[in-house]
């Protein structure tokens, strides 16, 4: 990828841009439906779960192409989830309790989402004979 | 004919002046820019500071993005500017999903201390960056 033709890099950037457009719009949509703090927790937990599924899917079944992965992982999911808004909400929290709650909800449910995604990837994918964990 | 043409330009000109892009378009455009910037930054950081034990690139984009969002919000930006730069660019530039997946992968690989440290350092540095942004805006406003 590093020494790829400039036009290949252009395609990479275009795929990421399209994914970023979709991902950020989904987050904006969620922020319109649910209040600010819960909406960020929601997109971060769901985005972490789906990204974990795609990343661990590569370890087990590996059915997706590199382009599909690029659009969804670097494009949609990384743009759907956000750290900056979460950090600002934490910084502007009204009380220490609210601050702790925002951090616990995002970190806790984000990490729980990763474990759910990993579990699903293991259930749906038959482990490859070479490499990967054998649990 | 020329009158028609002029009228056409006039109509086009008027619509161009009064155009009010929908919030979703503004956020999406910012999101596309933020995602590409994140990819480019991640590539650059990974090339120069490759680290097996700490996902430095993700830490970097999250701290930088939090700083810029702090600047935009404390500077009092609203409406389309906040949607483009805040929700769009900074929102997409920073990522929670890569952060959480990389942290779990570090942890399950046995690098437990780096995993917990990454999570703690990202939060501490992002909050410090937002504090710095607040100080900068407060200082320039005086």
Task: Describe the structure in your own words.
The complex is a heterodimer of chains A (135) and B (142). In chain A, helix 1 crosses helix 2 (36-60), helix 2 runs parallel beside helix 5 and helix 4 runs antiparallel to helix 5 (96-124). Chain A is mainly α. In chain A, 78% of the residues lie in helices and 0% in strands. Chain A has one domain (6-124). With 142 residues, chain B is mainly alpha-helical. Chain B has one domain (21-141). Helices cover 84% and strands 0% of the residues of chain B. Mean pLDDT of chain B is 87; it is low at 1-8. Classes of the chains: A mainly alpha (135), B mainly alpha (142). Chains A and B meet through helix 1, helix 2, helix 3, helix 4 and helix 5 of A and helix 2, helix 3, helix 4, helix 5 and helix 6 of B.
Keywords:
heterodimer, A: 135 residues, mainly alpha, 5 helices, globular, B: 142 residues, 0% strand, transmembrane (chain B), fluoride channel activity (chain B), FluC (chain B)
Large-scale geometry of chain A = globular
Q: Major beta sheet of chain A, specifics?
A: none
Rg of chain A, rounded, reads 17 Å
Q: What is the first-to-last residue Cα distance of chain A?
A: 32 Å
Overall mean pLDDT of chain B: 87
Count of extended strands of chain A? 0
In DSSP terms, counting alpha (H) and pi (I) runs of 4 or more, how many helices of chain A?
Answer: 5
Q: Work out the helix count of chain B.
A: 6
Helix content of chain B: over 70%
Largest sheet of chain B: none
Oligomeric composition of the shown chains:
heterodimer
**Fraction of residues in H or I helices of chain A:** over 70%
State the order of secondary-structure elements of chain B, H for helix, E for strand: HHHHHH
Computed Rg of chain B: 21 Å
The low-confidence runs of chain A, each spanning 5 or more residues with pLDDT under 50, are none
Reading the helices and strands of chain A in chain order gives HHHHH
Q: What is the count of β-strands of chain B?
A: 0
Strand share of the residues of chain A? Answer: under 5%
Subcellular location (chain B): Cell membrane
Catalytic activity (chain B): fluoride(in) = fluoride(out)
Family (chain B): Belongs to the fluoride channel Fluc/FEX (TC 1.A.43) family.
Transmembrane segments (chain B): 54-75, 113-137
